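User: I'm designing a mutation panel for 6-phosphogluconate dehydrogenase NADP-binding domain-containing protein and want to avoid disrupting the core. Could you give me a predicted structure to guide residue selection? Please restate the sequence first so the numbering is unambiguous.

Assistant: Good idea. Sequence first, for numbering, then the predicted structure tokens:
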Amino acid sequence: MGSPMAQNLIKAGSDVTVWNRTKSKCDSLINLGAKYKPSPEEVASSCDVTFAMLADPESAVH
């Protein structure tokens, strides 16, 4: 769900920064122009607005 939403934001010209526990899952977004940060903390500190797409509450604990 998060990847299609991020793709739409990138295609609309938004500045998008991504992170995933498995970095390779971000590769297609990075190839479209997204920036990558190595931790959720770094994403949050570099962005004015954040969205989180998680499978379950346990996924929020990194």
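For picking mutation sites, this is relevant: The chain has one domain: 2-60. The longest strand covers residues 17-18.
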